Amino acid sequence: MAKRLIPDTLMLEERGGHALNAMTGMSDPDFHGYPFFAANLMTEPANLTHGDWDFGSSHGRMIDGMILARLMSGETLGEEIEAKYRENLMTFFKEDGLSYRQHNPNFDWEQNANLIDQRAVILSLTTWYMTTGDPKVKEAADRHVAALKRIAIKEREVWYYPASEYMEGGWPSKNAALLRLAPDPAAFCGRLVMPLLKYYEVTGNKDAFELCRFFTALIVERSGVFNEDGSFNDGLAYRSGHFHTRLGTLDAIARFGAFTGDAKLIAWVEKSYAWALTKCTAFGWTPGDLKEQAYEHETCSLVDLIATGITLAKNGYTKYWGTVERFLRNHLAESQLLDLDWVKETADKSGNVPGHISYTDVAKRTRGSFAGYSAPNDFCCDVNHGRGHTNDLQICCLGSGTRGLYMGWSNTITEKNGSVSVNFLLNRGSVWLDVDSYLPHEGKVVLHVRRDISELRIRIPEWAGYTKVRIVRERGDDVTEGRGMDPSSWVQEHFLLLGEACEGEKITVTFPLDTRTTVETAIGQTFLTQWRGDDVVGISPEGRYHPFYSGRQVFDTAPMREGEYQRPSNEIVW
Fold first, then answer.
1. What is d(CA 233, CA 285) in angstroms, rounded to the nearest whole number?
2. Gap between the Cα atoms of 323 and 270, Å rounded
3. Is the CA virtual torsion 229, 235, 240, 245 positive or negative?
4. Is the pLDDT confidence value at 177 over 80?
5. How far apart (Å, rounded) are the C-alpha atoms in residues 26 and 432?
6. DSSP character for 237?
7. Are 379 and 342 in contact, with CB atoms under 8 Å apart?
8. CB distance 475 to 502 below 8 Å
9. Euclidean distance between CA atoms 233 and 275, whole angstroms
């Protein structure tokens, strides 16, 4: 592809390429190629460890993440590792169609089909099938969905699972089913709706749709996971209001409401989403739960927040486009590990225990990972509250973080019925137009139109106002100027309507940058936060180990570089 000068600002597709490095490096060549689950970067030397998530959950997330990262970035790194992940995943299935955790000589656990794992399994099989059309993948997925339906306990209006693990041959306790002792419904049923719905959309599998329908009814009508006011039930039986599984369930139900045209469901989700935002910072830090893990932010939770916000924004709640862009620019971008100078690593292999721990080349292997548990101002969370310091990296967050990049990248520019919308002011190429974003250095976005568009619109940040928005349109030698003062130019509250656009046209939109300081609260801790537009450019107090937001440079004129955007012909919609 021919290169040209583009702004040297955030490019989600490049971040996807960095994530591929980590998804490749986390593979353990001394233990069947299984990925390590966690990393501790604060020890000397840093280490990688295995855990009981190594199987369907970790493999599923890595397969899904690597496929999405390749679509964004065009990178080929780690193809042999991805092939091994795919091969391994297929060996975890038993005759009953479920994916089982395998024996590890270093841990005392028995084989079981964990219900959290099953979600990652069908997620990966769906993405895999969407990009390859492989009939063997569809066969495995169909058997898997049938098994998920078969083992569900079926009441008149809701379905559920009575335990977190299914044992080969049946549930561990028949009494649990008879007494309706369902464990956390969001973790084991609600989150499954998202990949099952997409699998139904792609294949028409009726079992998948049935599961979505009855799991959604369980969550909304009977479960008690969400309180009447939309808040999360913080009871011990509900995992203390665990944010990742709650937000993942909201994402799933929002998608189901949108797919079925159920406005009531979408409004139900929005009420809870709005409550959740009051517990998060404006830049995207989320609590782990409402009790012991409250101080531990998972990248997984942030990506659920991003995905739910996008679905709500697409279905009338357009204010959430701006909310999500702040999350993408700030805590998602900051949570990706790119600077490893602070990590102490060794090339020595003598202390490694296959299937348990490795100390070898940890920094090199994890570059591109996402934070497992982070503080609002630091990659590493080591507070005096809750559980103190735990994992710095978790492979679930690596897979989720990559998916978050893809959700932002794939929704930056969208098209529906001939109308093209620029939703996020981020660098992105497409078949319709390219977006050059000069933010946060300048309040400037340049659109390079690649084909005729019957209607083009661009979202203007709420802090930019409208009176000083300027539009310069260049069609060959013809140059016209406009302003945002015309009230008929604004649609859906935040979008500037540009009307028809012609192939070869260049449209420059400028607006004043807003600089402000906010006080952000995270579970009783306060942070003085400096903003330039939608970007955090400083935070106080600063972090201690690997500080966030302290190294961001801003210039009066955006730096430029040679580059080009990816425009894949096989982009998929998730």
1. 20
2. 13
3. negative
4. no
5. 37
6. G
7. no
8. yes
9. 12
CB hemisphere CA count around 435 (13 angstroms): 29
Task: Measure Cα distances from 322 to 295, 310, 504 in Å.
Answer: 25, 10, 28
Q: Which helix (H) or strand (E) holds 304?
A: helix 299-314
Averaged pLDDT of the chain: 95
Arithmetic mean of pLDDT, 461-490: 93
- Which three-class secondary structure state does DSSP give residue 327? helix
Task: Decide if 188 contacts 251 (C-beta within 8 A).
Answer: no
Q: What contacts 353, CB < 8 A, 6 or more positions away?
A: 106
Which tokens hold the place of 496? 């500037």
CB distance 50 to 31 below 8 Å: yes
Rounded CA separation 254/317 (Å): 12
Q: Which two tokens stand for residue 548?
A: 């966030």
Which domains are assigned to the chain? Answer: 108-223 (no CATH), 414-438+444-512+558-563 (2.60.40)
Examine the pLDDT at 497 and tell me if it is beyond 90: yes
Q: Which amino acid is at 219?
A: I
Q: Is residue 183 very low, low, confident or very high in pLDDT (cuts 50, 70, 90)?
A: confident
CA distance 520 to 512: 24
Token digits of residue 533? 């537009």
pTM of the model: 0.97
Between the alpha carbon of residue 491 and those of residues 177, 411, 459, 496, the distances in Å are: 51, 18, 9, 6
Other beta carbons within 10 angstroms of residue 503's beta carbon come to: 12
314-330 per-position pLDDT tens digit: 999 999 999 999 999 99
Contact 365, 49 (CB under 8 A): no
Q: How far is Cα 237 from Cα 218, in angstroms, rounded to an integer?
A: 16
Contact 256/211 with Cβ under 8 angstroms?
A: no
How do 153-154 and 159-160 pair as beta strands? antiparallel
Angle, vertex CA 368, rays to CA 365 and CA 374, nearest 5 = 105
Q: Which of 97, 494, 129, 157 lies closest to 324, judged by CA? A: 494
Residue 358 contacts residue 36 (beta carbons within 8 Å): yes
Per residue in 244-295, pLDDT (tens digit) is 999 999 999 999 999 999 999 999 999 999 999 999 999 999 999 999 899 9
Residue 532 phi/psi, 5-degree rounding, is: -130, 105
Task: Identify the residue whose tokens are 């209607």.
Answer: 455
pLDDT tens string 33-73: 999 999 999 999 999 999 999 999 999 999 999 999 999 99
DSSP-assigned letter for residue 192: G
